[in-house]
Amino acid sequence: MKKILFIMFLLLIACGHETKNPAESPETNILKALFHAIYMNHYEERLEGFKLAPSFGNVVHIGDSNTEHCEQYLAFGGDNVNRGIGGSTVKDLERLANDILISEQARRYEIRVGTNDLCVGDPLLSNMNSLIDVFTRSVPQADIIIYSILPVDPAMECPGRNNDIIRATNEELRLLANERENVSFRDVYGLFVSDSGALNMELSYDGLHFDEKGCKLYFRAL
């Protein structure tokens, strides 16, 4: 399933490069619909697994494919719970929060998401505020950490996402975090940049997703 999601994502990038506004492309709209349908199936599978094995760790890591994918290399469990779902945007994580996360009442939520939002054109900042609102209403004692969006290889750029846009968006996320109570911003962008200013390919197997070395750096606190 994760491979199918990734292939669909690559096709979206390829179509997006053909137009400044991918929403104007019928092919892109079709691919987005297919991607969403496949993603929702994967989401339901992951959610069912989370419900079958509820966890009440102190720290819950939520995010997209790099969060989900890294669980194969790292010892999640105990105080650290992995609730990553490949393909996720911020809006998807808000749904996940309502479906299960707030019932687990963690001490801290670490949010690692954003790259998919940029590619599909979602309103990342307003959606992030909405996600934070869910946590502050339902788990007011929890701390929230927003991680910076990570660099990508130029081959993985799309009209809404390149490294200049990512850096600018990270600054906006930093300002957002500063304005919210119990919310902080953790900038790890520089840890993954090569001398060329793109993602360091020694940490990735495809220019977007981490290999084992990249995962261990991304979750080095575990």
What labels describe this entry?
single chain; 222 residues; alpha/beta; globular
Question: In brief, what are we looking at here?
Answer:
This protein is α/β, with parallel strands linked by helices. The protein is built from eight helices and five strands, in the order ααβαβαβααβαβα. The chain has helices at 2-16, 26-52, 65-69, 90-104, 115-120, 124-138, 163-179, 212-218; strands at residues 59-63, 80-82, 108-112, 143-147, 183-186.
Write up this protein.
The protein is 48% helix and 10% strand. It is α/β, with parallel strands linked by helices. It has a single domain, classed as SGNH hydrolase (Rossmann fold). It has a 5-stranded parallel sheet with strand order 2-1-3-4-5. Helix 1 runs antiparallel to helix 2 and helix 4 runs parallel beside helix 6. About 5% of the residues have low confidence.
Topology:
Elements: H1 2-16, H2 26-52, E1 59-63, H3 65-69, E2 80-82, H4 90-104, E3 108-112, H5 115-120, H6 124-138, E4 143-147, H7 163-179, E5 183-186, H8 212-218
Parallel strand pairs: 1-2, 1-3, 3-4, 4-5
Helix pairs in contact: 1-2, 4-6
Which regions have little confidence, pLDDT < 50, spanning 5+ residues?
Answer: 13-23
Q: Given the C-alpha coordinates, what overall shape results?
A: globular
Kindly state the number of beta strands: 5
- Can you tell me the CATH class? Alpha Beta
